[in-house]
Amino acid sequence: MNMLLSGIGKGPKSPGKLVPFRFREVDGAVLLTSYFGDWTFVSRDEFRGLYQGELSPELEARLVEKNFIRDRVDAEQLRERLRYRRRFLNYGPILHIMVVTLRCNETCVYCHASRANMDQVETDMSRDYAEKSVNLALQSTAPRITIEFQGGEPLANFPVVKHIIEYAIEKNRAYGKELEFTMVSNLALMTEEKLDYLIKHKVQICTSIDGPEKLHNKQRILTTGNAYQLAANWIERINKRYIELGLDPVLYHVEALLTTTRAALDIPKEIIDTYVNLGCRSIFLRPVDPFGFADKTQKTIEYERKRYEEFYRAAVDYIIELNKQGTQVLERFASIFLTKILTGDDPNFLDIRNPSGAGVGGIAYNYDGNVFISDEGRMLHEMGDDTFLLGHVDNAKYRDLMTHETVRAALIASNLDAQPDCVNCTYNTYCGIKPENNYTTHGSIQGRTRENAICQVHKGIQDYLFTKLHQADASTLEIFRRWTTIRERSHFLQTGTAS
Ligand code: SF4
User: Fold this and answer.
1) Does ligand 1 lie within 6 Å of residue 461's CB atom?
2) Which domains are present in the chain?
3) Per-residue pLDDT in tens (0 to 9) along the chain, 499 residues
4) I want to staple 382 with a disulfide (CB 3.0 to 4.6 A). Which of 114, 183, 433, 483 is the partner?
5) What contacts 215, CB < 8 A, 6 or more positions away?
6) Residue 416 Cβ contacting ligand 1 at under 6 Å
7) Ligand 1, closest atom to CA 458?
8) Cβ–ligand 1 contact at 427 (below 6 Å)
């Protein structure tokens, strides 16, 4: 970008012609983005010309089409688009994470959750706290909420999982919300009986796969068996159950999450092949987080974000190739960013939105009754830091949680238009930061974005996606468009009836 600026001269002769825009050199061209999410590429020469007030009729027509010419924009339409894209701001918390236990049967090298051993039953959530957590969740102003079971390993406290499901369904009759349940489980404690219950109660099941069997078992230690084989067998079994129910296997299948450790960086293709062979259709190439045990083991599993970028590009190139050969599979980061870039909508993914979803988009309820701004805030509590604690289910009021000073501070800190680097960043309209992450890495929720690993990851991914968009290979663009198509998995919705 600096190189480009040095060739420009002193400034535009007609500064009023264009809407305010941000720019960045991508793939040898200049990417322009506007506040409303429109984007276009111009050549370096065209950009120099623009800066000097030169605008050919051909370029002007292209810029008009993308709403970059100030006196040709339909202001009312842009306002409506912005209102639509940010409509999540009116929802209230949709995600309600319930940590039903810290106990876990596996020991993972990067564990974020500050796990407890299987005999530490004192870290199980009680039925009383479970009910109080559900009572708060149902008070959310969001018309649709998801209760997500996490741990530890949630199957280790299955009686309370069942109690939450039955209690929430019953209580929701008075609220009439669209209600969903999801569970993040390593599946090693799954039984046919538990599965019957989860299928009957329409609980979405999600697991973790670290890559090929050898890597998975090295990183996720299960002393009682083969962690990979157990997860793989249950994924197959659950997917079969969905088919037996007559559900479309493209939509209904177990999804798995990857945590990209250093050992994974050299084998992107093997990792993708593992996922595809397990029947997964969505792969989330998440880097390691600086939370929980991951922080302590940073030296052995962390890596330079440059290496992650190389891994990401190789992995997604391969995923695109598989799609071209007829295997439908997508990468989640790409899908989230592309939805914002190509459709003007926002999928309301809480970690990548502006402002972040901390508190106002999601809440975490710990086994001990404490309520946090997010699961990351809850993890910091397990490490002895209560910065993101909002209250306790015994006496917390929904309104007090939403107006809590920590929630308000997190909103301000994650407003990209107030972040010194983000405010000028070309990717401002599509991006998002997490105050909890800033706090952990920089000691302040405001953080220093340019030194932030998450910013590097987001910038690297968006550089990659815009490079592909600039290269404009027709079949890649078609695949990208498919990745932005949101298909409702309505089977998992439990519609309550207001009385
Ligand atoms: S987090 Fe980084 S990539 Fe995202 S808007 Fe801010 S500066 Fe840009």
Assistant:
1) no
2) 2-66 (no CATH), 91-381 (3.20.20.70)
3) 333 343 333 444 554 688 999 999 999 999 999 999 999 999 999 999 998 888 899 999 999 999 999 999 999 999 999 999 999 998 899 999 999 999 998 888 877 657 888 999 999 999 999 999 999 999 999 999 999 999 899 999 999 999 999 999 999 999 999 999 999 999 999 999 999 999 999 999 999 999 999 998 888 888 888 999 999 999 999 999 999 999 988 889 898 889 888 889 999 999 999 999 999 989 999 988 766 555 555 566 667 888 999 999 999 999 999 999 999 999 999 999 999 999 999 999 999 999 999 999 999 999 999 999 999 999 999 889 999 999 999 999 999 999 999 999 999 999 999 998 999 999 999 999 999 999 988 899 998 988 888 999 999 999 999 999 999 999 999 999 999 977 777 888 886 544 4
4) 114
5) 263, 264, 267
6) yes
7) 3
8) yes
Ligand 1 pocket residue status of 113, Cβ below 6 Å: no
Atom 4 of ligand 1, nearest CA residue: 431
Residue closest to 267 by CA, chosen among 297, 236, 307: 307
**What is the sign, positive or negative, of the torsion defined by CA atoms of 266, 430, 414, 404?**
negative
Contact call for residues 133 and 99 (beta carbons, < 8 A): no
Pocket test for ligand 1, best of 455, 461, 465 (most atoms within 8 A of CB): 455
The overall pTM is greater than 0.85: yes
Question: Taking CA 290 as the corner, what is the angle to CA 134 and CA 259, rounded to the nearest 5 degrees?
Answer: 80
SS3 114: coil
Distance 36 CA to ligand 1 centre (A): 16
353 CA to centre of ligand 1 in angstroms = 11
State in Å: Cα 432 to ligand 1 middle.
7
